[in-house]
């Protein structure tokens, strides 16, 4: 790999992609980021077939270990298949578990097909050398996360005080601006022509 702690890879539709162009991605260790595959428009890889979940699977870096390695995590109802290099038959990925994703593997989405449904075959190619360096250089830097304690405390206290109506002046002001409570009318309270006094 060209850059330490970074994996650059390409996902291309082998079939069932309706002519979609291959896409390149870069993931870095320590980032909480995943490449999402599914039917919803916000996914990184869009697969618009029956039987594909809105958010079907994720490609991410495996947690732990000194070397970063790709894995796939199935999130779906109909399963995600994985055809490893050198294997003729695909195997089903365990649900909500990271499964190793080797270079040249093919992801099958969905694994279980319903009647008249199609399946997408997505080939994963890990980029090496100059291609990997170019992909890593093109990756935008991750936004710096502000620590939770960095938020100013004064606006939060002020909002809490407003909500609770705390303080001598705030409580009185809240009491004077509250709408007056009125007695709810009942059926017996209604006036009719026969029950008015003086008739």
Describe the fold and architecture:
With 199 residues, the chain is of the alpha+beta class. 16% of the residues lie in helices and 26% in strands. It is built from 3 helices and 11 strands. The chain is extended.
How would you briefly describe this protein structure?
This is FHA domain-containing protein. The chain is an alpha+beta fold and about 200 residues long.
Unreliable stretches: 141-151
- Seen as an oligomer or otherwise, the chain set is single chain
Instruction: Estimate the global geometry from the Cα principal axes.
Output: extended
What is the ordering of alpha helices and beta strands? EEEEEEEEEEEHHH
User: Could you tell me the radius of gyration in angstroms?
Assistant: 30 Å
Task: Produce the secondary structure layout.
Blueprint: E1 6-15, E2 23-28, E3 35-38, E4 45-46, E5 57-61, E6 70-74, E7 81-83, E8 91-92, E9 98-100, E10 106-109, E11 120-126, H1 129-138, H2 153-164, H3 168-177
Parallel strand pairs: 3-4
Antiparallel strand pairs: 1-2, 1-11, 3-5, 5-6, 6-9, 7-8, 7-10, 10-11
